[in-house]
Request: fold
Amino acid sequence: DAKTTQPPSMDCAEGRAANLPCNHSTISGNEYVYWYRQIHSQGPQYIIHGLKNNETNEMASLIITEDRKSSTLILPHATLRDTAVYYCIVRLSGGYNKLIFGAGTRLAVHP
Amino acid sequence: DAGVTQSPTHLIKTRGQQVTLRCSPKSGHDTVSWYQQALGQGPQFIFQYYEEEERQRGNFPDRFSGHQFPNYSSELNVNALLLGDSALYLCASSTALPSGIYEQYFGPGTRLTVT
Reply:
């Protein structure tokens, strides 16, 4: 079973920041938080990951709370192309560990 | 473009038949994982191949089997197809970085319809 909880859907206006929350209250000390997204009819795409510090890359920012029990993925200036299902996943590092997907959050970006 | 390719794109099979799906990993990747995604659900892990051996397996019956070739490409075989096997089958490739952190790159998937 997925170890994360996400809202089933969210809306965002184009050009505004999209803040996608994720709860992972049972995360262990050596588990990372990963975010993937899946645009309709495509394979999931890696976005970002973090352990305990906030992370930023060209796609998004990841804010992890100090107790690591929740996190927020931030798309700073959402575009219509960001409409997708976003998955928050916790997993150990290393190549042995499968990705366990939940239902994700369906983000709709509208004009 | 993640570089992972899958074939065929779409496939229609009849209940009871057998099917083989193919995956070529991203250049430089040595690990291939397969996932099944039913309509409206998140992908479910089937198994992972590394060094031509199945390294990890999800909760799928023995009707699902796989193979990895020396060039790291992989096949997923499903025998005795059931209507419930209709899904998008995703292949993901990866390689372990020195830090132990790695990303899985997904292909576009094969849409299997069982009638």
